[in-house]
Amino acid sequence: MKSLGSIRRDFAPWNDPSAKPYIQFDKVTKKFGDFTAVNNLSLTVFEREFFALLGASGCGKSTLLRMLAGFEEPTAGRILLDGQDLRGIPPYKRPVNMMFQSYALFPHMTVEKNIAFGLKQEGMPAADIDKRVAEMLRLVKLEQFAKRKPHQLSGGQRQRVALARSVAKRPKVLLLDEPLGALDKKLREETQFELMDLQQELGLTFVVVTHDQEEAMTMADRIAIMDKGEVMQVATPAEIYEAPTSRFVAHFVGNVNMFEGKVAERAANTTRITGATGAQIVVENAAETANGADIVFAIRPEKIKVSSKKPADAVNALEGEIYDVAYLGDMTVYHIKLDDGQIVRASALNASRVTEDPLTWNDRAWVSFRPDAGVVLTR
Ligand SMILES: Nc1ncnc2c1ncn2[C@@H]1O[C@H](COP(=O)(O)OP(=O)(O)OP(=O)(O)O)[C@@H](O)[C@H]1O
Question: Which residues are in the ABC transporter domain (predicted)?
Answer without folding.
Answer: 23-253
